[in-house]
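debug: dumping io for the single-chain case to check the tokenizer round-trip. Nothing else runs in this session.
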Amino acid sequence: MSAVEEVVTEAPAVEAVPKRAMTLGLGTSLVVLGALVLAPLFVKNFIIFQMTMLLIYGLAVLALNILTGGSGQFSLGQSAFYAVGAYTSAILMEHAGMNYALTLPIAGLICFAFGFAFGQPALRLSGIYLALATFALAVAMPQLLKLHFVEHWTGGVQGLVVTKPDAPFGLPMGQDMWLYYFTLVITIGIYIASVNLLRSRSGRAFMAIRDNEIAASAMGVDVALYKTLAFGVSAGITGVAGGLGAIAVQFVAPDSYTITLAISLFLGMVVGGVGWLPGSIVGAAFIIFVPNIAESISKGLSGAVFGVLLFIVIFLVPHGARQIAIVAQQVLSKFKK
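debug: decoded output
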């Protein structure tokens, strides 16, 4: 037996763990969860509303993270899936009288089917060409929602007003607080499911396609199936986020889901760290609060100030919040030693 064969034979088996499915440690996760649970008890309703939108946008960014960070497919059309989910929940609540909680899984399933179907023709595209195709979808969606034959359901240009639900079972809390905790439970459930997905066989297939599509195909991965599946899962989660957004804002209109929303979600993914799921909340916080900070600095030049702040963040931490987390972990390790 040669020396090479001996090395190969004696090498211990190592379990393949997706590098980019990195999550927070147990202690850090409990601290963050405790902060999210207790914070609404000490702030006003407007802050609770902003925290609810933070969780909702965090879900949408997480969905994009699964698609881009997981399978390596670029998308600028998440606003279209978000709009479909929002209108599904709004129409079912206002026209069919359905309970708001039941509309969310339906919105997720419809968007999953929509994303899976869109992923079929998108198989022929990759890179910037796939980004352009999804960009066209995002641009077209607001116009499609204004068409005359669907105006009875969508409300056309005027949109639909959605009734915000009260707390069930006579719980002593306001509408905003109840909706926040309702959204928090859904967010935690989807986050845990997403982490498990990326650590599963399907998740490893996603990342094999992301790293080298030809090599993944040679190893027996059904590239077509897993690429469309990634689109479907991402669209489904985005649809749930859109439904929650419609309930929280109490209003849906075509002009609320333009390409600007899609670019904001993509920006949130980059700032949070591509492929790092906990960074989705950080990215959502950036796209919600930083524009307000920029406007407080200069109302007339808020766009320019936002651009400068974004440039500074990208220049200092090009890998987003994931890079900060790695550095903090290294510092804590040295401090413990």
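debug: round-trip ok. The chain has a mean pLDDT of 84.
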